[in-house]
Backbone:
């Protein structure tokens, strides 16, 4: 569930831990001074990640049939609010974008816009087989087949459709990754924006988005 | 008490009020969840949300007024809280109340929403002006019964000072000395108006979910949103403190103050938990109906 | 229903007629009389509501069949009016002046099948496909699989399983013999 499948064009692996380790072994190491176990920046980062992981706000935007599976999460049986997960109706206030099921090319344009308008840090969850390899819509002329060519996906949840329990499992996995600082998708998107843009323009024929939707 | 110590105490009061407001909001979310048969978030969830929102990066810019909107809202809440005495007779908890503070409090109740309206309209999202239009029209209509109730209190008590209104109730003695029982019509008008002020259902037409999802603050994120969250919590607490002073005879000790404000706040929550939402014109008609009539009766009754 | 059908037969040349259900009748009309018949049905009979419009591609006969599904809102009876048009350079008269909701149907049919409706608003505007450059995708001579393989990147390693063989291996060949 957590491991990103190998990409078509091969995404370079980004090492875990966002902040470079501050206590590099310089001369002081040999002089007997004790290096501090957790540097100040890392401690701050850990606190921030804890806050982020426990307050995931999901944008309520359903692209496909998977959004049917999202609704029970708010009800008494599954209740995602106990993990601090809430639905937000505006991209400006949300951190998690769920691509729920098949994503048509017309929707892809809107999704890119929504994703770029969200404030960093932000995460993408691909829900269902359709986001992984096309699923049962693999031969449809109107849907994309590999989501991580167009958006940096952090967690895939396989299934057609995954049950709400699987979704909660995916959320828990995402929370664990955020706490460990393993989610670098939003940095990757900025660093390799040209590569993503090239893929997006290959499939969206009438490209009329701005350079970056702030 | 020197001015410096007074300012320090007031700052502490504001911080406590913000924390108290956030805890109250957490309790509200938990209550709503339990009513719906869910487990619900932990009570400290609003603190986590606030912390997360502060740590967000923002790249949004819509001009100066956009930035000032949440600040106005925050200042409106803090200003309202600072002119009200939490516990009369304890100088540390009287904040900056003075003769005539009731007029300033009435002004501050409008101030935050107006500032927010100016700021949110700059955001350019179509839901913002719709929400602002709904909110301001609803505010105008619930200010009428609330204003009439306050006029009734002033005319009977003969003072613009919240402190004197509290003292008058405490001199009458006992629970029956409260304005809630001394002036039932004014209390009815004001507590019905409070339903509209706190914007729980059936009067949540500003942020109406499924209609104009969050309404005015659609474009706000990061620090602006954290300012709005803390501003909203202190504003809610300041309003309940005001109602406690005006109608429930103030407070003589800190636990009493907590208990009374909490009860006043949960009144709107419990009403909200069981009602669906009004439309805008239904809400306005409601406030201009029975609450306004109760307010008029409250003003006219002492004349006969 | 029967009176309407009889009156329709008296006024227009009904090429063929078929009763699908007790409340669903199908009539075939020549292309020249279709608009007049629809107008007459709307003005003089209870079938006033246009419920659906669709196109069927009869590629073997080099024709498109356009179907108008009309409903009687009192008795919930349905009447399908079918007409055939030539497949090459397909054009049809627009009915958006009778039923304004036909504009969206006609826009979609124009996009998905390439049938022209002269005079209808929003013809040529994209409805679902944005920036489409190929032939209209719902035509039967459009090779969907080839288009997908050519244009939409996929992830390698996808398996295709012949369902019949797979299930046969699982449950034994005997189960499948009788079907």
Residues:
């Amino acid at each position: 569930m957590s491991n990103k499948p190998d990409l078509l064009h091969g995404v370079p692996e980004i090492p875990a831990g966002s902040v470079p380790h501050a206590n590099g072994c310089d001369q002081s190491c040999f002089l007997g001074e004790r290096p501090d176990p957790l540097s100040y920046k890392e401690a701050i980062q850990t606190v921030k990640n804890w806050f982020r992981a426990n307050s995931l706000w999901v944008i309520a935007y359903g692209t496909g049939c998977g959004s049917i599976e999202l609704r029970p999460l708010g009800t008494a049986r599954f209740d995602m609010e106990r993990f601090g997960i809430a639905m937000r109706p505006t991209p400006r206030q949300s951190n998690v974008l769920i691509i729920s099921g098949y994503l048509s090319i017309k929707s892809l344009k809107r999704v890119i816009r929504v994703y770029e308008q969200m404030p960093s840090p932000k995460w993408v969850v691909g829900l269902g087989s359709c986001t992984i390899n096309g699923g049962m819509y693999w031969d449809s002329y109107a849907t994309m087949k590999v989501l991580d060519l167009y958006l940096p996906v952090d967690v895939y949840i396989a299934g057609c459709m995954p049950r709400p329990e699987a979704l909660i499992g995916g959320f828990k996995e995402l929370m664990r990754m955020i706490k460990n600082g393993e989610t670098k998708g939003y940095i990757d998107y900025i660093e390799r924006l040209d590569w993503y843009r090239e893929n997006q323009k290959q499939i969206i024929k009438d490209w009329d988005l701005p350079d970056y939707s702030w | 008490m020197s001015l410096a110590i007074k300012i320090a105490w007031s700052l502490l009061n504001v911080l406590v009020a913000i924390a108290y407001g956030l805890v109250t909001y957490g309790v509200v979310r938990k209550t709503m969840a339990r009513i719906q048969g869910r487990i619900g978030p932990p009570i400290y969830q609003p603190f986590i949300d606030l912390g997360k929102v502060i740590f967000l990066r923002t790249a949004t810019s819509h001009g100066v007024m956009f930035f000032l909107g949440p600040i106005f809202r925050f200042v409106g809440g803090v200003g309202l809280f600072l002119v009200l005495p939490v516990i009369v007779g304890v100088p540390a908890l009287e904040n900056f109340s003075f003769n005539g503070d009731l007029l300033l409090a009435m002004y501050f109740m409008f101030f935050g929403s107006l500032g927010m309206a100016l700021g949110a309209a700059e955001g350019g999202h179509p839901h913002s002006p719709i929400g602002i239009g709904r909110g301001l029209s609803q505010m105008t209509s619930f200010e009428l019964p609330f204003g009439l109730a306050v006029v009734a209190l002033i005319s009977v008590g003969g003072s613009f000072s919240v402190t004197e209104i509290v003292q008058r109730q405490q001199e009458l003695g006992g629970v029956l000395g409260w304005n809630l029982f001394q002036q039932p019509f004014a209390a009815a008008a004001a507590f019905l108006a409070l339903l509209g002020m706190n914007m729980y259902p059936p009067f949540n037409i500003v942020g109406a979910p499924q209609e104009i999802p969050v309404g005015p603050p659609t474009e706000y994120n990061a620090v602006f949103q954290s300012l709005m969250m803390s501003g909203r919590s202190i504003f809610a607490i300041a309003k309940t403190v005001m109602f406690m002073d005006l109608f429930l005879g103030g407070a003589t000790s800190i636990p009493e103050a907590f208990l009374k404000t909490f009860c006043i706040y949960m009144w709107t929550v419990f009403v909200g938990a069981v009602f669906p939402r009004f439309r805008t014109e239904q809400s306005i008609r409601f406030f201009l109906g029975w609450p306004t009539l109760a307010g008029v009766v409250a003003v006219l009754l002492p004349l006969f | 229903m029967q009176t309407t059908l009889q009156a329709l037969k008296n006024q227009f040349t009904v090429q063929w007629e078929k009763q699908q259900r007790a409340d669903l009748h199908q009539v075939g009309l020549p292309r020249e009389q279709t608009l007049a018949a629809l107008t007459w049905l709307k003005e003089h009979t209870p079938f006033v509501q246009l419920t659906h419009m669709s196109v069927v591609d009869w590629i073997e006969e080099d024709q498109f069949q356009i179907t108008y599904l009309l409903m009687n809102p009192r008795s919930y009876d349905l009447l399908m009016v079918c007409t055939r048009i030539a497949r090459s350079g397909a054009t049809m008269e627009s009915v958006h002046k009778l039923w304004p909701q036909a504009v969206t149907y006609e826009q979609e049919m124009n996009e998905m099948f390439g049938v022209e409706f002269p005079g209808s608003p929003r013809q040529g505007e994209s409805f679902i496909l944005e920036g489409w450059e190929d032939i209209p995708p719902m035509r039967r001579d459009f090779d969907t699989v080839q288009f997908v393989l050519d244009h939409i990147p996929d992830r390698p390693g996808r398996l295709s399983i012949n369902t019949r063989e797979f299930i046969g291996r699982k449950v034994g060949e005997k189960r499948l013999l009788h079907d």
Summary: The helical segments of chain C are 2-11, 31-44, 102-113, 144-151, 163-171, 174-177. The mean pLDDT of chain C is 88. The longest strand of chain C covers residues 49-58.
